[in-house]
Structure formats: structure tokens, C-alpha cells
Amino acid sequence: MSDMVDIVRNVADLRTRIRYWRDQGLSVALIPTMGALHDGHLRLVATGLELADRVVVSVFVNPTQFGPHEDFSRYPRQEAEDADKLAGAGCHLLYAPTVEEMYPLGFATTIHVVGVSEGLCGDVRPGHFDGVATVVTKLLLQCQPHMALFGEKDWQQLTVIRRMVIDLDIAVDVIGVPTVREADGLAKSSRNAYLSEAERAIAPILYKVLNTIAEGLRQGGDVADLCQEGTETLLGSGFKSVDYLEVRAANSLHKLGQLDQPARILVAARLDGARLIDNLGVEPIRA
Ligand code: PAF
Question: Which atom of ligand 1 is nearest to the CA of 62?
Fold first, then answer.
């Protein structure tokens, strides 16, 4: 049996704990999450423990990053289970604020990152990245960690956060951690829990399509043709719709016509039960 993880629920208690560690010269890593923790999150904790002396995980289902017709109310909330997993993983502190703590009466500020927030999920989920940028800024200012870790599965989110941290001079190292996958390639995600058995069998095709496009690009294939074929494969395999399937510059997220710099293939596609996203890096071929 592992010990229990300590839980704090307000900014004042969080700051007391962080100050105590900092006064001892200990480094602190923050891992922002929305809970329903899976192996991908636990990989973030393990990486945090390698890089820092103390690891804080925040669990907060952030209402401002969900659109009016999205899954905010049914998003899984399982704090006791999450706390057990975090204790087992060696996390030092769970920060689980209430909505009132994060957004007190009269809250009126939004962080909006232009450019990298546009297109891809930014187009399909209007306002989503404003919600993410605002809550992550708050979490970083509340905790003031030395570093913050995020999963690469949400590549556009990671890119938005990197931009925002540079632009706002927030003194934190942003660390991206590779996606953890099921044995059949499906990226671990809290939303996989929404899939029926039949949908779960279709879902790994997303990653197969990304790999096919990566291979095609390495062989000099045309970006538009490969994405078109990939979309057809997804629709032909049972996906209901494809929000996007694009090749972008890995860091700037500019659209790419050819593989002349490090690139990221990004996809979002829908099954009845869930909207799934994934992405894969591909390096330019050196002559
Ligand atoms: O990736 C997530 O779980 C969320 O978008 C984050 C970064 C915790 C902000 O609410």
C-alpha cells in the first residue's frame, strides 16, 4: 500500500507548501491536468520526478475551455482514484482547486494567443485555447514552479503554452513529454473511456494513418495527396467525420507544402462516442 498524497484546494495553501520547498532549495515541477488520470499522465509524473525534487499535479476540469455543446458536464471526475494513482506514482502534492477558487466572482481576464491558436483545434473549438491559456497562466502564477510538463498528444496546446510563456516572461521551463500509447497505437486519453467496443476497435486507425502519411512524406509524397488519402481511409474505416488532417511546421505550426523542415502531422476525427486527436513528428529527409 502506498501512502496518501497530500491535497490542497486553495492558492494560499498551495503557496505555503511551495514556499517551504523553495526555501530548502528544492526544485518544483507542476503537471496541470483535468484528472481522470491514465498512463500518459503517470508518465508526466515519472518525468517530473526525474527532473525536479518535488512534483505537484493539479486536477481541475476547467469550464472555460469547453464549448457550450462539449462534454464539460460528463467529463470524468474521479478524485479519489486519481489521488491513489498519484500516491502510487510518487507525486508530492495534489492541487485540486474549486471553480470558485479559480474564477472568483467578477473574474474578467482572458489570455488570448494569436497565430498558433488559430486553425486545427482552434477553428473547430472556438475559445478553447483562450480557456487553456488563461487557466494555465493562472496555475503557473499560483504555483510558480521551476518547470511545467505537458503531453505532446495535445501538440497545438503545447505550442500555444510555449508561445504564451515566452510572451508573458513567465519564469518556467515548459517540457513536452511524448505520447503514451496502447499496444495497438491508440494514444492514451481520458476521452477514450467514451468509446464503445466497436469504436475502440476503429480508433487505432488514427495512428496508422499518421504513420502512413509520415512514410509517404519521407518518400517524397505530396502533402495534399497524402492527407486526402488519409482522410478517405479514416472515413472508410468508420470515422464519422474528420475535423482536420494536416501537416504543419512542428514549432510555428505554419502550413507546410513539402517536408523541408521538422514537421508534425496533426489529426482530429470523430466517432459517435468521442472526438479523438493525435499527432506525429516527421523529420525532413537529409540529402
Ligand atoms: O491538457 C489538459 O488536460 C488541459 O488542457 C490543461 C492543460 C490541464 C488545462 O486545463
Answer: 10
